[in-house]
């Protein structure tokens, strides 16, 4: 038989079940199963990891200044774009990246980003910089020292391309161009003047009278070194009998032409000199000699007849081109192209492209050049060309300035000085120029 104590305990237990049923909504007053306590623990860990990750990300973008920030460092303020260059622990507003680099020691330039709060309490200095210096600099691997093209345009001004080229670009053997009333034959990397009094006759003799004459400006024509004038020539002692040649040659005289045909149908022309020697004439020499000696006689001979003859050079200029090849045609632009010749020197060659409509400078984005403008030697002013289409002369000690800008002297390429004239020039780049006008140095 249950005691009173047992009955009271049973009543309490039953009352507890009823209260639990009403409060938890469990039918029949069933007891709730105990919850898994690991779930809130796992959830808490996940939330903690998310908070940690967010903190790391925020810290990444609001990182403090590096330990060695006091000198040679360009500091860009996050979310503002304000730029400072650090000099002896002081922050100075700087006008452009080129100026910041020029203020750094050679090879020591650094760049970092910091929040505005990070810079609170750091002393400021006055603004420094060259107002018209480059805003961005090409990487050393993106320098383009050759393959530049300068083309005539229908507008009359030169159109210059660096790192790119106009459509339809292809090499040609020659071009006929004019600068004002002066006419030139462009061939063999040179410009050859053609006097106006001989122009029509010379073009006809050279079989160029159907070629278009392309108008160019003085800057373009100067890209090609001056060659000898294309004009008729003759021998002053023409008609003098010559007795030292083969007896099978009939009555040779000075000034006459001996013609040898080969199996392919081509012909070689030899000019007989008064001393008995013969000079082989190339395509241009032959045309100009016939123009200057309209009554010249020609005699067909065999190759064996020439075996005993001593050879010499003609009296024509030695720098005339040997042959002309195809030329610039209608609806094409004449283009000077900067290339490396067989001896490793930069020279101008002639090409043609589809017609260019306007002048100007086009430099492929992200490229540029570091060049020394020379007159044939190894000395000359060093210039930086950027994709802004402008050049800046480097001042100060050239090697130091080159390193301050992030390059080495091995990145400098020599080019003919007239090519620099194609680009608008900015102010000199040097450390002294950056400090110019600054009082609190």
Question: In words, what does this structure look like?
Answer:
The chain is of the alpha/beta class. A 6-stranded mixed sheet has the order 7-18-17-5-6-19, with no helix packed on it. Strands 15-12-13-14-16 form a 5-stranded mixed sheet. Strands 3-2-1-4 form a 4-stranded mixed sheet. It has a domain at 4-59. It has helices spanning 4-24, 38-61, 97-102, 199-205, 218-221, 283-292, 398-404, 431-435, and strands spanning 73-77, 83-87, 90-93, 110-114, 149-151, 159-162, 170-171, 174-179, 182-187, 190-194, 213-215, 257-261, 267-272, 278-281, 298-301, 311-312, 332-340, 346-354, 360-363, 369-374, 381-385, 391-393, 413-416. It is built from 8 helices and 23 strands.
Q: Which key phrases capture this entry?
A:
elongated, six-stranded mixed beta sheet, 441 residues, 8 helices, five-stranded mixed beta sheet
């Amino acid at each position: 038989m249950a005691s009173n104590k047992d009955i009271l305990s049973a009543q309490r237990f039953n009352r507890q079940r009823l209260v639990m049923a009403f409060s938890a909504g469990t039918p029949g007053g069933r007891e709730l199963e105990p919850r898994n306590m690991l779930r809130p623990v796992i959830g808490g860990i996940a939330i903690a990891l998310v908070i940690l990750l967010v903190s790391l990300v925020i810290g990444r973008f609001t990182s403090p200044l590096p330990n060695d920030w006091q000198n040679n460092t360009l500091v860009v303020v996050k979310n503002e774009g304000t730029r400072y260059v650090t000099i002896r622990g002081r922050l100075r507003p700087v006008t452009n990246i080129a100026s910041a680099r020029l203020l750094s020691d050679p090879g020591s330039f650094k760049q970092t980003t910091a929040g505005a709060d990070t810079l609170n309490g750091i002393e400021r200095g006055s603004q420094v910089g060259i107002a018209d210096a480059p805003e961005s600099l090409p990487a050393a691997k993106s320098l383009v020292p050759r393959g530049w093209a300068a083309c005539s345009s229908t507008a009359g001004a030169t159109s210059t391309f660096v790192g790119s080229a106009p459509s339809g670009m292809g090499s040609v053997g020659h071009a006929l161009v004019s600068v004002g009333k002066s006419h030139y034959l462009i061939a063999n990397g040179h410009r050859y003047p053609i006097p106006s009094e001989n122009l029509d006759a010379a073009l006809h003799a050279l079989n160029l009278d159907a070629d278009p004459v392309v108008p160019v400006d003085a800057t373009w024509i100067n890209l090609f070194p001056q060659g000898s004038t294309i004009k008729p020539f003759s021998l002053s002692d023409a008609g003098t009998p010559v007795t030292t040649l083969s007896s099978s040659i009939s009555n040779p005289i000075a000034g006459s032409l001996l013609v040898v045909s080969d199996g392919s149908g081509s012909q070689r022309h030899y000019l007989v000199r008064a001393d008995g020697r013969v000079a082989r004439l190339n395509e241009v020499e032959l045309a100009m000699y016939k123009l200057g000696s309209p009554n010249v006689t020609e005699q067909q001979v065999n190759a064996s007849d020439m075996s005993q003859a001593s050879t010499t050079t003609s009296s024509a200029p030695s720098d005339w081109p040997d042959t002309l090849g195809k030329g610039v045609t209608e609806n094409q632009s004449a283009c000077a192209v900067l290339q490396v010749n067989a001896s490793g020197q930069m020279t101008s060659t002639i090409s043609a492209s589809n017609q260019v409509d306007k002048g100007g400078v086009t430099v492929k984005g992200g490229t540029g050049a570091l060049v020394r403008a020379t007159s044939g030697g190894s000395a000359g002013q060093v210039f930086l060309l950027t994709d802004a289409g402008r050049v800046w002369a480097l001042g100060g000690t050239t090697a130091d300035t080159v390193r301050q800008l992030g390059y080495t002297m091995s990145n400098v390429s020599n080019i003919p000085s007239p090519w620099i004239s194609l680009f608008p020039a900015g102010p000199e780049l040097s450390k002294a120029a950056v400090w110019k006008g600054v009082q609190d140095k």
